[in-house]
Amino acid sequence: MILALDIGNTNVVLGCIADGEILFTERMATDSGKTELDYAISLKMVLELREIKVSEITGAIIGSVVPPVTSLMREAIRKVTGQEALVVNVDMNIGLEVLMDNPSSVGTDLIVGAVAGINRYPVPLILIDMGTATTICVVNENKQYIGGMILPGIGVSMNSLTSRTAQLPRISLDPPKRLIGKNTVECMQSGALYGNASCIDGMVDRIEEELGQKATVVATGGLARKIIPLCRHQIELDDELLLRGLWIIYKKNK
């Protein structure tokens, strides 16, 4: 059994994986102000709540876009499990060719998602991760990572909107009763949810046009479940995409 962690700008998604089966997933807040002991305590509590014995964990792997937290989490994992965690980078054996100007600059979350995608879905692939930022990655029919897009995330956009306008309130991202809002809150909800859904649909159309063929579209991330059901394209929701990718990379490198 291994411990897998995806460290994002807002949340750390972690889970235990045994023989390719994800036994559980949990989220904790990403906070570079915490110490390695803080993270160790949080990890230990999660494992205890999930009734996972530390002695059963034989390895660990981290995918991270927050370098300061990466080192803290490695130390926390060492304290709790005694294991030395692998940290994903493009120089590892990932089974994916990255056709970018500077492959080492590509976020590990994008790489991990693409690795899981090519092992789970037909190519070409469009992979959407909706978190602090909304990222879109494209894998061609030869299973090569060829690029993508980075958009402001929904939360970032809404925080910017409310902080820079005097009369717009902070709102919950609940679906509005109608597309055409009848009050300020409904109008903001419609703009945030249907606006982002329309953006995703439009980007998929443009990507497929440039590829010259239809693609499998997969979405993951904390906000995907609020947006993807409103899209008009057929998009597969996969909450465990990144943990699956971490498991595949771990097997290739351990």
From TrEMBL:
Its cofactor is K(+); NH4(+). Substrate binds at residues 107-110, 184. GO terms for cellular component: cytoplasm. Transmembrane segments: none annotated. SUPFAM superfamilies: Actin-like ATPase domain. It is an enzyme of class 2 (transferase). Catalyzes the phosphorylation of pantothenate (Pan), the first step in CoA biosynthesis. Belongs to the type III pantothenate kinase family. Homodimer. This is Type III pantothenate kinase. It comes from Clostridium fessum. The lineage of its organism: Bacteria, Bacillati, Bacillota, Clostridia, Eubacteriales.
